[in-house]
Design goal:
Elements: H1 2-11, H2 14-20, H3 40-60, E1 64-70, E2 83-90, E3 93-101, E4 108-114, H4 115-118, E5 125-133, H5 135-144, H6 172-184, H7 191-200, E6 206-209, H8 212-221, H9 232-235, E7 239-242, H10 245-254, E8 258-264
Antiparallel strand pairs: 1-2, 1-5, 2-3, 3-4, 5-8, 6-7
């Protein structure tokens, strides 16, 4: 393992070294705690993706963006991107602030990672969607994700399919949505207030069609999935509303928060 990374560092530029190092186990958002030996080809592809992302982000002129990745295949639910975070520029480097599930448990934390780590979480496909907010909103977001503010809207009780209009749990994309609300209206001090703002501004969560057997199996065998925060009339109709990356991107456009967007591919 060490020999592999030594040869990799020698083969890559200094920039690559900076974004490749320090991959904590916590980067496995929503996954089990299995340790898999990284494949050299996959690691190189992920590093190349990170380099391309940083290049395009620098060229965009943005300071803060909302970035999504294709961590899981959600095509059967009509969704493309699975996980969101805020990315900010520090000189010529970019860092991602996002909420990660702790190894498939029902707990989570807020992490700051380099762009290399963001793409080294065994993604289903190397592709990213970048939403560039209006400049005045970027400055608000930058203040909202500073270390002393980033956890203002965070709830550690994690549920991958958390109901968007409840506060019993919180999933990763929901934290992004609620932090966005806090950034837009700093007087927002609670998750209930953030959700009320999102509802007032017209945010519409995605509706996933999950049959009873799927729901039962998920609840029995996944510590990070629960349905008891969903209204019974929707849950038993197999209509599970949750905060998806695609629904947040649609909201950013609809609400006039986004100035422009672009997609990054290898």
């Amino acid at each position: 393992m060490n020999a592999f990374f030594t040869s990799l560092r020698r083969a890559r530029a200094a920039f690559l070294m900076g974004i490749a190092l320090a991959m904590p186990l916590a980067t496995h958002a929503g996954q089990t705690c299995e340790r898999n030996e990284p494949r050299e080809t996959a690691v190189r592809q992920q590093l190349d993706m990170a380099v391309k992302a940083v290049e395009q982000l620098n060229a965009s002129g943005a300071e803060v963006v909302v970035i999504g990745r294709v961590g899981q295949d959600l095509s059967k639910y009509g969704q493309r991107y699975s996980h969101l975070g805020f990315a900010y520029r520090d000189g010529s480097n970019w860092y991602v602030v996002h909420k990660l599930n702790e190894c498939g448990t029902a707990q989570s934390n807020i992490y700051e990672q380099g762009m290399g780590q963001f793409f080294m979480d065994d993604p289903f496909q190397l592709e990213a969607y970048v939403s560039v907010p209006r400049p005045e909103i970027q400055s608000r977001l930058r203040a909202a994700i500073r270390p002393d503010q980033a956890t203002s809207m965070h709830d550690p009780r994690y549920n991958m399919l958390a109901y968007p209009w409840a506060t019993r749990y919180q999933q990763s994309n929901q934290w992004v949505d609620e932090t966005l609300a806090h950034a837009m209206e700093p007087q927002i001090a609670t998750r209930e207030q953030a959700q009320a703002w999102l509802k007032f501004k017209g945010y519409q969560p995605a509706v996933l069609n999950l049959g009873p057997m799927t729901r039962l199996g998920s609840r029995m065998f996944k510590a990070n999935i629960a349905f008891d925060d969903h209204p019974n009339e929707k849950r038993f109709a197999d209509k599970i509303e949750t905060t998806t990356a695609d629904s947040v991107f649609a909201f950013l456009q609809k609400a006039g928060i986004e100035e422009r967007h672009f997609v990054i591919r290898p």
